[in-house]
Structures are given as C-alpha cells and as structure tokens.
Specification:
Length: about 300
C-alpha cells in the first residue's frame, strides 16, 4: 500500500521555507558570483592600474631624465644665448664701425673717382702730347734725314768745290804767271778781256782799246789797296752747278767775303736770285743758291753783289 501523502497545506508550509531558502541561496550565490566577478574585474583593473602606474613611474623616470637633460641643454642654451648676446653686441659694434668705415670708404671712393677722372683727362692730354711728340719725332727724323742728305750733298759740294778751287787756283796761277804783253800795269782787265783805265767811271765796262795778243781772263781785277773801303763786294759768277745747287763767285777773303754773307745775283740790272756764302778762299767763294729766292736758272757771268746780311 502506497504511503500516504501528507496533506497539501503542510507540504506547502514545508516547501515554502525550503524554496525561500533555496531562492535565498540562489540569490546569495548569484550575489557571490557577482561579487567574485566584480572582484576579478577589480583585480584586473587593479593589475591594469598597477601596470599603468608602473608605466607612469617609468615614464616619470624617463621624463625626469629628459627633464635633467633638458635642464642641462637649457643651461647650455643659456650659455650659448649669453655667448650669442655677447657676439651680437660685438657684431653690433663691428657693424657700427663698419658703417663708419663704409662712410669713409664712400668718401674715399668719391675722391678716387674724381682722381680717376682727372687721371683720365691727364692720360688723354698725355696721349695727345704723345701723339704730338710722335709726330714731332717723325718730323725731326725726316728733318734729320733731310739734314743728313743735305750734309752729304754739302760734302759732295765741298769735294767738288775743292776740286774746282784747285783747278781755278791752278788756272789763276797760270794766268798770273803769263806776261801781259803791251798792257799798261795800271790797266784793269775786265770781263771778256777788255781793258779799263783807272780814269774810267765806276761801273762802266766801256773798253778804251783792245790789246793785241791779250789773253782773255776770268773776271779777275788787279785791285788797289781796299783798306777803308766800305763799298759792297761785287763780283761775277765763274761757275754754276745746277746739280748740287751752288755757284762759285770770283771774290774771296781778300775782297772781304766771309761765310754767311749773301749775294744778290743780277742780270741786265734785275735781281734773278740770291745765294749764301758757305766756303771762302782767298780769291774765290762758294755759295749755296737759295731756291726760294731764285726763280730761274743762274748763268756764268751773272753779277753777284753783296746783300744786306
């Protein structure tokens, strides 16, 4: 026979407390589990916080080291800044001095520019003078060449004059050595062999008579003593050298001719030329013909009269 069941009310009375206990246990278990989980979470958070604290402490140490480094660098930078300030002050003073020097250099530059302009003007002037000097040197060189050429020609003339002088001297000596038959010693032999008496008027060549057998002489006059006579020297051309432009006059130092004296060359009463004495012998003189004063050719027999030199 199955057991008999207790009544429902009493069972409910027994089950309700049991259920409540079980429910309380469940709630407590759930609370415990929740607290355990929360504790675990808190422990995890605490561990994470501890890690963060460790990291922060490590970072703090690193930051402290960095701070020390930064302080050291700051001190170094402060020293550098102080040095840079000193350098800046020195540079400022140098800039000021440089500015003053620049002003001085500007003034000196302006002076140099002005001197350069003056030097350029002097160079231009000296260049012009140099060109003038070069032209003058060329002219003098040409003049020297002309003088050397004239000197060579003069030497040739002197050589020819010496030769002609020797010939003429020899001829005069021969003529003076020949006896003049039938001629009065007081008669002057004129050009062409004509005889002039002492009583004839001066400057006339009218012959008083022909002398038989008289030798035709060059225009040589057997003169009296000319001491104290101031009349100009008057002679004739004995030779004309057109190649070397000189003439020979039949008057010399015995007649008062001297080097540098000038002769007016006359023909038919008119002046046809002018010559300057360059060499003198006792009875002859050699003269250079002045081309600018002698328009045409001279001839043997032309009259030479002392000029105003």
């Amino acid at each position: 026979m199955p057991p008999s069941l207790p009544p429902l009310g009493s069972a409910l009375k027994v089950l309700v407390p049991v259920g409540l206990g079980l429910a309380g246990l469940g709630v407590m278990g759930m609370l415990y589990l929740g607290q355990v989980q929360q504790t675990q979470r808190l422990q995890q958070q605490l561990a994470m916080t501890q890690q963060q604290v460790n990291q922060l402490q490590q970072q703090n140490q690193e930051m402290a080291q960095q701070l020390d480094t930064l302080q050291t660098e700051r001190q170094t930078l402060d020293e550098k800044v102080s040095a840079l300030r000193s350098q800046l002050a020195t540079a400022t003073a140098s800039i000021e001095r440089s500015r003053v020097s620049l002003d001085e250099l500007q003034h000196r530059y302006e002076g140099v520019v002005e001197e350069r302009v003056q030097l350029q003007q002097q160079v231009e002037r000296l260049t012009g003078e140099r060109e003038s000097a070069i032209q003058e040197a060329k002219r003098l060189t040409q003049a020297k060449t002309d003088v050397e050429r004239s000197l060579a020609q003069s030497r040739e003339r002197l050589t020819l004059l010496d030769r002609d002088y020797r010939k003429l001297t020899h001829k005069v000596a021969e003529l003076e050595a020949r006896p003049l038959a039938g001629v009065d010693p007081m008669v002057t032999i004129g050009p062409g062999g004509t005889a002039i008496t002492p009583g004839a008027s001066a400057g006339t060549d009218a012959p008083t008579g022909s002398v038989s057998g008289a030798v035709e002489l060059p225009p040589i006059i057997v003169r009296k003593d000319r001491a104290g006579v101031s009349a100009p020297v008057r002679g004739r051309l004995m030779e004309v050298n057109r190649e070397h432009n000189f003439i020979v006059v039949d008057k010399g130092s015995l007649d008062g001719v001297r080097v540098g004296m000038t002769f007016e060359i006359l023909r038919s009463g008119g002046v046809v030329g002018r010559a300057t004495v360059v060499r003198v012998r006792p009875q002859l003189s050699a003269c250079d013909v002045l081309r600018s004063r002698t328009p045409g050719p001279l001839q043997v027999g032309d009259v030479a009269v002392q000029g105003g030199s």
